[in-house]
Amino acid sequence: MKRHFRVWRGDAGGGDLRDFEVEVNEGEVVLDIIHRLQATQAPDLACRWNCKAGKCGSCSMEINGKPRLGCMTRMSTFAENELITITPIRTFPVIRDLVTDVSFNYEKARETPAFAPPSGVAPGDYRMQQVDVERSQEFRKCIECFLCQNTCHVIRDHDENKPAFSGPRSFIRAAELDMHPLDSRSDRKEYAQASQGLGYCNITKCCTEVCPEHIQITDNAIIPMKERVVDRRYDPLVWLGRKILRRDQLETRPAPSSVAAPPSSARLPASAAVGPDGHMDIAELTAPLQGGPSPFGDDLTFPIAPEELLYNHPDKGNKP
């Protein structure tokens, strides 16, 4: 069945919307239609794409005015007689047709301070509790489609804000590092406020609404960062407490001489959980870096070869 599409054609100098009638088959997505359009009617149509599986973030575009991924927008979500308009994402300069210059986002990423390793702890000795891993795990799902950047009205409607505003993508990176227990920098929140423009965000949640990975950008990253900045800078009780107790100058508890002292924000390694039968979980046994000392003594080396494990899978009705 043929469907009516209206696609923006042009470059940095200008352009307009062109009408096309394109064949649509069951189960197809908008990116399939773009490819068929290139193959049959507009071979010079420029469109950025890579994986066609919603994991590379390349095919960002605006479909009927909403920022979406072309490969994740099914044609079945539109009415049969609906006109489908496809345009490039509006916040960034057009290179040609549906391809835009998103270098702004990479420039802001380079300005973000990188992870600062803890002093006195070798990379192989890093330890994190699972609760700390889960706290910021969702931020690592970002595929850098920049739909959140595109829909953020702070820069979508005001190009003059771009030098001072890094956008939601940078904020979740800052929040991820701020929540990292081994990151030795303690000024992530203050840096986000002073240099990344965190204060420009007025929490409309438009970035969360368009995220294809369903990351709770506003609730789990931006709002907590804003709250901690306010606590540090404006809460009179916190200010008075820090003055009286001088918490900034408190020394961490000295570690034993045989073990390097971790930073104050790091948690000490915890022993692995041991079951009633005295065995650790199979995931702990096969891990090259253990969460704590082995209950079996110091003569056991890790990882243990799978064939040496006495383990019966619970799916077979057995217990380990």
From TrEMBL:
Region of interest (Disordered), residue spans: 252-299
Molecular function (Gene Ontology), one example: oxidoreductase activity
Residues of the signal peptide: none
Keywords from the named record: 2Fe-2S, 4Fe-4S, Iron, Iron-sulfur, Metal-binding, Oxidoreductase
GO cellular component, one term: plasma membrane
Pathway in which the depicted protein is active: Carbohydrate metabolism; tricarboxylic acid cycle
Protein family membership: Belongs to the succinate dehydrogenase/fumarate reductase iron-sulfur protein family.
PANTHER family recorded: SUCCINATE DEHYDROGENASE [UBIQUINONE] IRON-SULFUR SUBUNIT, MITOCHONDRIAL (PTHR11921:SF29), SUCCINATE DEHYDROGENASE IRON-SULFUR PROTEIN (PTHR11921)
Protein name per its UniProtKB record: Fumarate reductase
